Amino acid sequence: METDFVLFSARHWGVILAIPLASALLRLAAGRRAERGRTVRLSTGVFLAVNELVWYGYRLYTEGVRFPEALPLNLCDLSLWLTVFTLLTLNRWLFDATWFVGIGGASMAVLTPELWAPFWSYPTMYFFTAHGGVIASLIFLAWSGMARPRRHAFWRAMLVLHAWAAFVGAFNLIFHTNYMYLCGKPHAPSLLDYMGPWPWYILTGEAVAVAVFGLLALPFVRRRVEEWSERCG
Length: 233
Known about the structure:
globular
């Protein structure tokens, strides 16, 4: 199959704008009652998990076993399952890491997707549902007040990101794979195209990750400052 997807076309913008809309709908569905919010949160976690497991089944049925390729070792795979467990448990440590790793990684995938199938096909619909679902779910949790990054969450997220990258890098070295694009850039246009050749784009990516994580932390830093000012005032 070949993709007919066009970067930042009307359809692409439709997908991008659908993500905050999905967050708003989840927030509206949750309402103000704790039990209702819990039902929405758990249902969203189950939906993302089932969506991912169905995808695994589809890949296994259509492609068979392809070890060491086609394993869920990319950053977005980690983000997806971190988001699922965060939704199901509301574990504060998980949310600390997932807020940054999940939104940071999934947003890059949504903005510059590497697709190989037509837009109106199951693989493409799965791709945007999974990645968009991660972003929408995390925004919903923060928006509803169910969870928000705590102090030092930035550093916890950086620790998780680099621990996962180290594990995946070792796997790539042993099995000659290219998970997380640590050994080469994706074929589709991406932000990595502007970061220099290998391995320099990895170092540039570090700076971009720090900047993106910093932006994601900013609303909560401001809120903590405002709360501190109110207590002191």
